[in-house]
Structures
1.
Amino acid sequence: MSGQLLQVTWLPGDDRLRGRCHCGAQAEAGEPVAMWEWLLAHPDHPAGGPATPDEAATLPRPPAHLR
């Protein structure tokens, strides 16, 4: 995978990560390990993001004024 860019960024004002694969696929996750596993699984990563939902994704998000 030499010379191909993988990118993980923190979403502003949130605990979530956004990953971008060199193929253009993007996903969000709450756990860095899940995000990197998803990215490194190219070309077999699922289009929607990491296959296993993390706890942060299953909990309701608090209103914006409480974050």
2.
Amino acid sequence: MSIGLSTYAFFWQWQPTLPNPLSLDDMLEATAALGVTVFQICDYSAIESFDDEQLADVRERADALGIELELGTRGVHPAHLQRYLTLAAKLNVHLVRSMLYSATSRPTPAEAVEQLREVAVEYEAAGVALALETYEQVSSTVLVEIVAAVGNPVVGICSDPANCVAALELPADVIARVAPFVNNMHIKDFAFTRQEGWVGFSLVGAPMGEGLLDYDAMVAAIEPDARGINQIIEHWLPWQGDAATTRDLEAAWTAHNVHYLRSRNS
């Protein structure tokens, strides 16, 4: 098991609409500066337009920094996942995280099983795992049924129980259900906060150990260390009113969460 960071740990720092956005190289440098050895390029669509020279530069930079790369996208259409398998080969990536739905495709469970079976053989031959993330648009029960029906161990689940709270699934139930199929973990704490005026709640991120995630129980159920499952840190950090304040807090959360995971896994 290794601790990793995601582009979601730098979400407010790389947004191209904000001043001085971080490049992919900048994020790799920041990851290495924290002594972290895995970086997941997740939902970072720009990577799809990189040419071979740019991809080689990313791979060489990661290698020089001692960082293992993972990829993340959305959707299970075979052509799209085959495109990411090509990217994986060029970046020396051995795990691609995806989600059942994309902006343009919402397959039924039966369709998803058929599509995943089509690409699973190619992923297996390439030595690349596929991890389907838990989230509120698809119940964890359905996701487990899909993965079990595909029947190829290369297709597993990226556990992120915080996402499922919005569908009224309890994190402990989600963790217990998906644990046997997990091959990647997204790690973020979360909490409910009262809206201004006390009308309603917001489900937002929190520094690890300060929210509702029972991290120790999750690790005990999934056993990432024994199974070689990477734990990828990300955040749900609300906008803090201005870019500088938000980015500074994001960096502080990342450093805190890296330390927290190390202290719990030592």
3.
Amino acid sequence: MAKPLTLYLGRITPWQVENPRYVATVSGSLEPIVTAGAVIAGLPAVFDLDTAIGAQLDVVGLWVGRARTVRLPIPQPWFSFDDDRLGFDRGVWKGPFSGSFGVYSLDDETYRRLLRANILAKRWDGTVPGAQAAFDVFFIDPATHVFVQDNAQVPYPQILFAFDEEGKGFDQAYWFDPAAAKATTERVDVSMTIGVSGRIPGPLELGLLAQDAIPIKPAGVMTTYAVTSVDGAALFGFDVQNEFVSGFDAGAWGVEPERLLEA
């Protein structure tokens, strides 16, 4: 915390404190230094992700590597009445400097959430919970369920039976079977699906998903997005019945975000 000017003036000796010209000289000399110190002491809060606003938040975005302006892949994302896709909580408010081709400058709170998601994505540890945390930071609508599905099947068990090794004995490890190992390895699906069920996000969120604005993608792994095609419905899938995935008469086909933006 910066020290106030009165602290320094209070240290003037009694012999000199009675001289107003001396006190004025000390005060005039120290005031710019004290003011500069206060500004410097306040810089961490000004550029803190939780408190930065406006131009300061733009600087934080430069550090993170995510600009405030985004291009929405639809010609008309702006708010309008009598359109379920562009009504309240869905359409994007057109600002005075917004372009006519879907170039949009995010407001501070939305931009802040996107930056948090990008920070988590760039320090991602490769796990499903880590990826889920990045999407949960940005998608805050409780009616929209974003989840991460690792499609890779478990390859041939790596814990093989061995004598005199803890955890690899009888009833703990597997006998090696070359035929089974080959067949199982060939069935591994190296891909990941980001599913969105429940309430369909607005065009802004769909546009950000479509352009991978939250860069969750392992090296060498194909990442696809599947968004429910029916508002409020879970994604269609077998042998599961919950708010994320459901079967016949409950689940809806998952489509790419671009398909919903073009609809």
4.
Amino acid sequence: MSGLERDYTHLTVISSENRALLGYISIPRLQQLLKEGKVKDTDNVESAMQKFRRKGTRYKVITTETPLEELEEFFEGGVDGIGKQDFAVVTDASRKFVLGVATKTDLESFCKRRA
């Protein structure tokens, strides 16, 4: 799996029809599911994917223009009462394209390199 080879912790899953964000795969969770035999490496992505809850859920748009302080606050749960987050899906401002995924560890590593 390329996610494991590239040391990713989260992969987004998008619709092949309209590129809508459907959910994500947490690599640590996937490894656990494989180990427990709950999924097989031949299963489709949907069997291991965690779907995004759409109804009644507020989302914070994170873009490449989002200040790092705001991203840190997002991870710590201080943005809009959403609660602590393990990762952020980085999109364009209109939310049409997923540009990447950022984790708290990514942010910490980036800040250390800049110091």
